[in-house]
Automatic annotation (TrEMBL):
Identification of the protein by name: Carnosine dipeptidase 1
Swiss-Prot/TrEMBL keywords: Carboxypeptidase, Hydrolase, Manganese, Metal-binding, Metalloprotease, Phosphoprotein, Protease
Gene Ontology CC: one annotated term: cytosol
Annotated binding of Mn(2+) 1, by residue: D148, E183, H461
Organism of derivation: Vombatus ursinus (Common wombat)
Domain Peptidase M20 dimerisation as annotated: residue spans: 224-381
Family the UniProt entry places it in: Belongs to the peptidase M20A family.
Length: 491
């Protein structure tokens, strides 16, 4: 349909169309999945610390910088130096892109954060197609990074490109901060944000992250909170060398038995964490908050079936959501030094390291939890009267993040969702952690919003990751509609 005159042309006409017609509107070539295909083809895996993958991430960042320049943005590709890894390797850290387009003091400035590195993927892990070739099957675009997070980054670029293709003024100043090491813990990103607080971020009004999923296959969502995470290692050591269980079994305290007992004392079979005091600072549940869970569109039976879990710990939708979003959880991840290979080796491992983490919620405090965990494990260990040595270390501490859903950009995003999808979004939280959200909130002190595009079954980090063509295209339109709404509300 030929756009009308004026700033809202093209996009406002969408409001008058039904869903089928809206989806049929031809959008500029920049919005087709061709660029996504090109980006997915780059194996920008930041998890495997190998020179080849680092080169791929560098290539990815270069291509993204070119794409942003093509959009007319001024792009700074910030050299992040090198990192020394525990195995002695020295690897270059990929650059972080800081880009800006438009500097009109009358317009709000919206900064988009995204990442272009991906989780590892191999066809033999159970992918139906090559993970680095974007393949469309039944409207689903399969490929590593399609939803996490290359698709959403491109959708934001598409939104900007759509205004340009329609010869319309972009109603907001746009900034991008794009990194290539998110999956590996966002190496050096915090320092860059602190360094750029009074320069790049000085005029930023709103920060948007689109690195999570809806809670439904169909209904869009807005995210206003994520849990934090505190990660521990528990080392139990007898000596440097393993033992023969026939020669030593029965006469010593086995490190694995100590460790299993320590790990087994952390959480009971109903998911309740057994560390004294751990729930003391958890925000009390208000009636208003309780009601919010009732309105979330979640089909528990379908959710359970899709997850292939026989029975969850809780029977109602509300309890499930609260235990994912507003209560802490403790997960045991693994044991280093355990004999985990197939076969029946009669070994007594001499030193083992258990790993577990606790998802934190408002208003738990990292150093308080650290002290509680260490004291509890030391007490349990001393009750065993073992001759082994115990060391408990906290290796990561990330605060939970919670947003004010009455901020202008949340209202603008709700309106944009209504325009593009014709429904009000689910207002949800994410049980996982996006560490940079809290950093932005604390350092830049501006509103941070998570505006996801992907559907619940996109399979981020998993085999056969995908983004629906529908979500990718409508998501691009959503970002464009958001620019219009936030500009209107800001002024
Ligand atoms: N839906 C967004 C998921 C992002 C993600 O997977 N984040 C990691 C970050 C993290 C926390 N602790 C260690 N890494 C996560 O596990 O939540
Ligand atoms: Zn991600
Ligand atoms: Zn990820």
């Amino acid at each position: 349909e030929k756009p009308k005159e004026g700033r809202l042309a093209g996009l406002t006409t969408l409001k008058t169309l039904n869903k089928k017609q809206r989806f049929a509107v031809p959008w500029p070539i920049c919005m087709t999945p061709e660029s996504l295909k090109e980006w997915v083809a780059i194996e920008s895996d930041s998890i495997q610390p190998l020179p080849h993958f680092r080169q791929e991430i560098f290539k990815m960042m270069d291509i993204a910088a070119d794409k942003l320049r093509h959009l007319g943005a001024a792009v700074d590709s910030i050299d992040m130096g090198h990192q020394e890894l525990p195995d002695g390797q020295n690897l270059p850290i990929p650059p972080i892109l800081l880009a800006e387009l438009g500097n009109d003091p009358k317009k709000p400035t919206v900064c988009f954060y995204g990442h272009l590195d991906v989780q590892p993927a191999k066809k033999e892990d159970g992918w139906h197609t090559d993970p680095f070739t974007l393949v469309e099957v039944d409207g689903k675009l399969y490929g590593r990074g399609a939803t996490d997070n290359k698709g959403p980054v491109l959708a934001w670029i598409n939104a900007v490109g759509a205004f340009q293709a329609l010869n319309q003024d972009i109603p907001v100043n746009i900034k991008f901060i794009i990194e290539g090491m998110e999956e590996a813990g966002s190496v050096s990103l915090d320092e860059l944000v602190k360094r750029e607080k009074d320069r790049f971020f000085s005029n930023v009004d709103y920060i948007v992250i689109s690195d999570n999923l809806w809670i439904s296959k169909k209904k869009p969502a807005l995210i206003y909170g994520t849990r934090g995470n505190i990660y521990f290692t528990v080392e139990v050591k007898c000596r440097d060398q393993d033992f023969h269980s026939g020669t030593f079994g029965g006469i010593l305290n086995e490190p694995m038995a100590d460790l299993v007992s320590l790990l087994g004392s952390l959480v009971d079979s109903s998911g309740h964490i057994l560390i004294p005091g751990i729930y003391d600072n958890v925000a009390p549940l208000s009636e208003e908050e309780k009601k919010m869970y009732e309105t979330i569109d979640l089909n528990l039976e379908e959710y359970q079936n899709n997850s292939q879990v026989e029975r969850f710990l809780f029977d109602t939708k509300e309890e499930i959501l609260m235990h994912l979003w507003r209560y802490p959880s403790l997960s045991i991840h693994g044991i280093e030094g355990a004999f985990h290979e197939p076969g029946a080796k009669t070994v007594i491992p001499a030193q083992v390291i258990g790993k577990f983490s606790i998802r934190l919620v408002p208003y738990m405090n990292i150093s308080v939890v650290e002290t509680q965990v260490k004291k509890y494990l030391e007490d349990i260990f001393s009750q065993r009267n073992s001759s082994n040595k115990l060391k408990v270390n906290m290796t990561l501490g990330v605060h939970p993040w919670i947003a004010n859903i009455h901020d202008i950009q949340y209202i603008a995003a709700r309106r944009a969702i209504k325009t593009v999808f014709g429904v009000d979004p689910d207002m949800i939280r994410d049980g996982s952690t996006i560490p940079i959200a809290k950093t932005f909130q604390d350092i830049i002190q501006k509103s941070v919003m998570m505006l996801p595009l992907g559907a619940v079954d996109d399979g981020e980090h998993s085999q056969n990751e995908k983004i629906n063509r529908y979500n990718y295209i409508e998501g691009s339109k959503l970002f464009a509609a958001f620019f219009l709404e936030v500009a209107k509300m800001h002024s």
